[in-house]
Amino acid sequence: MKSKNYFLTKEFLIKSIFFVILMIFNTILQAQRTLTVSGTNWTVPIPAITEAGSNYAGTYESATNQILLAAGVPLLLGSGKISVHYEANPTWHSSLILQARRTGNGTTTCGTCSITGGTTYITVPQTDVELFRIQAIVALATYTNIPIQIELTGVSVTIPAATYNSRIVFTISAL
């Protein structure tokens, strides 16, 4: 009596290879880009005007690490674009301009990953604008403690006296 072992047939091997490839692609497609934002609220120390005809300095900068980002990009040629926008919280004057920049790369254990862009101030609008990019070549790109600095310009005596607040929102997406 002769028995045929199905597990050693060409048909089984082809189906198995196809299944493994399908699982790999499924894992890659389900891989998530992650972004965690930490830091403290920045209250701009605007001095009082004590002399008639004087104006404010107009430009104020936060600490170079006012905001810290942690970002993860999936492996196998993955990439991520970190974008930024602001939301009035609850009021903001249109003459006040927020800008943001990346002041360092943070830390990573990935030797084949890169982080590019965002080292000069960009204006933060009310709709997303790209701040910087992360590229993973062979391994998962995980960066922690990416420092972000904020700049406020446009402060003037011509703006009505009030308390203005905004919230800066960071997002990560595919390129």
Write structural notes for this entry.
The chain has 175 residues and is mainly beta. It is 12% helix and 37% strand. The protein is built from 1 helix and 10 strands. The strands form 2 sheets. Strands 1, 2, 3, 5, 7 and 9 form a 6-stranded antiparallel sheet that branches. Strands 6-8-4-10 form a 4-stranded antiparallel sheet, with no helix packed on it. Residues 26-30 have low confidence and may be disordered.
Quick overview of this protein structure:
The chain has one helix at 10-30, and strands at residues 34-39, 59-61, 67-73, 79-88, 97-102, 114-116, 122-123, 129-135, 141-153, 166-173. It is mainly beta and 175 residues long.
Q: What's the structural blueprint in terms of helices and strands?
A:
Layout: H1 10-30, E1 34-39, E2 59-61, E3 67-73, E4 79-88, E5 97-102, E6 114-116, E7 122-123, E8 129-135, E9 141-153, E10 166-173
Antiparallel strand pairs: 1-3, 2-9, 3-9, 4-8, 4-10, 5-7, 5-9, 6-8
Which series of helices and strands comes N to C? HEEEEEEEEEE
**Secondary structure tally: strands:** 10
Mean pLDDT: 84
User: What's the number of helices?
Assistant: 1
* Helix/strand/pairing category: mainly beta
Overall helicity: 10-25%
What portion of residues belong to β-strands?
Answer: 35-45%
Report the span from N to C terminus. Answer: 60 Å
**Largest β sheet strand count, sense and barrel closure:** 6 strands, antiparallel
Q: Characterize the quaternary organization of these chains.
A: single chain
Using only C-alpha atoms, the radius of gyration works out to 25 Å
Anisotropy-based shape: elongated
- State the low-pLDDT regions, or none: 26-30
